[in-house]
């Protein structure tokens, strides 16, 4: 095995490690599940879905606000920085990145049922 092969392996492992670290947060996984199922979605709609999932029913106005703020300022930028989600901050729209096949496989394996 040459040095190039070792470096390529380490790079892939680093990508997998980073992806798993980012998806360890349940709200980020909810975002990915909904974007995988629905496609492109505006942040307000996504916030309603995520907040409802967290609350287990109808979220309060405070829950919706807090979830929307967290999505805009923490979760979507983090997912975008790792290449999992494409997030247009100006338009307020997100979608699962086309080149995130590992994430799609992970979502399929976990098999979470979303309402």
From TrEMBL:
Residues 21-94 form the DUF7344 domain. It comes from the Archaea. Pfam families: DUF7344. This is DUF7344 domain-containing protein. It comes from Halomarina oriensis.
